[in-house]
Amino acid sequence: MNIAAFDIGGTALKMGVVTSAGELRVKGKETINHSDGDQILQAMQTWIAAHPECEGVAISAPGYINPHTGFIEKGGAIHKFDNFAIKAWLEARTLLPVAIENDANCVLLAERWQGKAAELTNFLVMTIGTGIGGAVFCNNQLLHGAHFRGGEFGYMFTERPGPRDVTRYTMNSTCTLRVLRCRYAEHVGRALEEVSGEEIFDRFDAGDAVCQRLVGEFLNGLGAGLYNLVNVFDPQVILLGGGIVERPGFLQLMRDQMAWFGIENQIDTVSSGNDAGLIGAVWHFNQQYRSQNSDHS
């Protein structure tokens, strides 16, 4: 059975045709302007129409998502998706079964299905990007929480709250790649759009004093969050995801930093790369439509 799979992000939409066995046969990508939900929906419909061999739709998306009803309570950076019944919307227009799950949960499911966590019963995933995402696999099951908000690691404090809005002291406000870029851009007097995480880490590797300090603070914030997670959940491992983890030497850099916290042996990187969202979304689809898949096997 072929499934049209989508990994929705605020800046890019990844698309694929994936078999129910998890084989990625075709993939594509579209740049998304200003987290435009209408552009995302149109691109998804165009992809589905271009691949009539697909018999279902699997979606990985940011935000608070009910994986049973397909209702998005909050769509992260994609405000168009706030309070949006995307499953019902797409099913009405494509006449195909649709399944949707939170993006960090999909990364975790991909690792559990095809990656380093295949034999694990207790592990976490932390995704590092524009924001900090997370997912929890505890006692052999994915934890969603009472309101489908489990794993929102980005809302953990990295420092004691002061007089400002409490969210200003969380991981999402202190140690994301966007925050790192903002701090560097402000220091050197450049526009944020002109500064990339890759440039900062290149300068860090070259010994640039400013980047050494900023990256050190960035890693220290991540370390504080990871230390808390290790002691709350006692996982077998925490797998790190996001484009940054594919940078050569990043894992060793993180482990060197985590040695200060005493947890250097409890972190690793995801094995699925940028396709993890697509693969995990299909695993979730399989669970939602298990009997249908059996009929096609």
Question: What descriptors fit this protein?
Answer:
five-stranded mixed β-sheet; globular; alpha/beta
Give the distance, in angstroms, between the N- and C-terminal Cα atoms: 7 Å
Count of DSSP strands:
13
Tell me the Rg in angstroms.
19 Å
**Quaternary form:** single chain
Helix content: 25-40%
Mean pLDDT: 93
Indicate the low-confidence ranges by residue numbers: none
What is the overall shape?
globular
Number of helices: 10
Reported for the largest beta sheet, the result is: 5 strands, mixed
Topology order in helix (H) and strand (E) letters? EEEHEEEEHEHEEEHHHHEHEHH
Alpha-beta classification: alpha/beta
The amount of beta strand, in percent, is 15-25%
Strand order of the largest sheet: 3-2-1-4-8
Layout: helices, strands, pairs:
Layout: E1 2-8, E2 12-19, E3 24-31, H1 37-50, E4 54-61, E5 64-66, E6 71-74, E7 84-85, H2 86-94, E8 98-102, H3 103-114, E9 123-128, E10 132-138, E11 141-142, H4 171-174, H5 177-188, H6 197-205, H7 209-233, E12 237-241, H8 250-258, E13 267-269, H9 276-288, H10 290-296
Parallel strand pairs: 1-4, 4-8, 9-12, 12-13
Antiparallel strand pairs: 1-2, 2-3, 5-6, 6-7, 9-10, 10-11
Helix pairs in contact: 3-9, 5-7, 6-7
